[in-house]
Automatic annotation (TrEMBL):
SMART domains: LMWPc (SM00226). It holds the Pfam family LMWPc. It comes from Rhodoferax lithotrophicus. Keywords: Arsenical resistance. Residues 6-146 form the Phosphotyrosine protein phosphatase I domain. This is Arsenate reductase. InterPro entries: Ptyr_pPase, Ptyr_pPase_sf.
Length: 166
C-alpha cells in the first residue's frame, strides 16, 4: 500500500454537513496519500451542502469546489472508486445497514454532533461548524501522520477505530 492512494468515504444521513466537512478537510491535507469522498444514507431531494459549512471551509482556506450532497448508493456501483476505509460520522448512519462495499474496506465510526441542529443563532451555528471542523482536522491530522505500515488493510480498521478515542 506504500504507493497507493487511500480512498476514504465519510458517511452521514443527509451528506450536508459533517461528511462534507471531513471530505473537504482530508482532500486538503491528505497530500495525495488520501482521496476523500462523502455520501449520505438518505439525502433529501435537492439536498445541498450546508452554506454555513461551506463558509467555514472557505474561511479556513479549504476548497469547496466539487462538493455536493449525494447518496451512498453511488459508491456501491461497480464503476465507483474502491474504498479502503469507510467512516460514519453521525450516529444515525452508524446504525444503518450499509450497502455492500466492493473490496470490503475497513470501517470505523467517528461520531460528531450535528453542527446544523438546534435553534441557535446563525453565529452560534457558525461556531458549531467551526468547532466541528477543528475536531475533524485534529483527528484527520493524526490519520495522515500514520506510518504506511499502520495503513495496511489488516491494521487500518483498528487504527481508524482507535482514532475515534482521540
Amino acid at each position: 500500500m506504500t504507493d497507493k492512494t487511500l480512498h476514504v468515504l465519510f458517511l452521514c444521513t443527509h451528506n450536508s454537513a459533517r461528511s462534507i466537512l471531513a471530505e473537504a478537510i482530508l482532500n486538503h491535507i491528505g497530500g495525495g496519500r488520501f482521496k476523500a469522498y462523502s455520501a449520505g444514507s438518505s439525502p433529501r431531494d435537492n439536498q445541498q451542502p450546508n452554506p454555513l459549512g461551506l463558509q467555514v471551509l472557505q474561511h479556513a482556506g479549504i476548497s469547496t469546489e466539487g462538493l455536493y450532497s449525494k447518496s451512498w448508493d453511488e459508491f456501491a456501483l461497480p464503476d465507483a472508486p474502491r474504498m479502503d476505509l469507510v467512516i460514519t460520522v453521525c450516529d444515525n448512519a452508524a446504525g444503518e445497514v450499509c450497502p455492500y462495499w466492493p473490496g470490503q474496506p475497513a470501517t470505523a465510526h467517528w461520531g460528531y454532533p450535528d453542527p446544523s441542529a438546534g435553534d441557535g443563532t446563525d453565529a452560534e451555528k457558525l461556531e458549531a461548524f467551526r468547532q466541528t471542523l477543528l475536531a475533524f482536522k485534529r483527528r484527520l491530522d493524526l490519520l495522515i501522520s500514520l506510518p504506511t505500515a499502520k495503513l495496511e488493510k489488516t491494521l487500518l480498521q483498528n487504527t481508524a477505530r482507535d482514532l475515534a478515542k482521540e
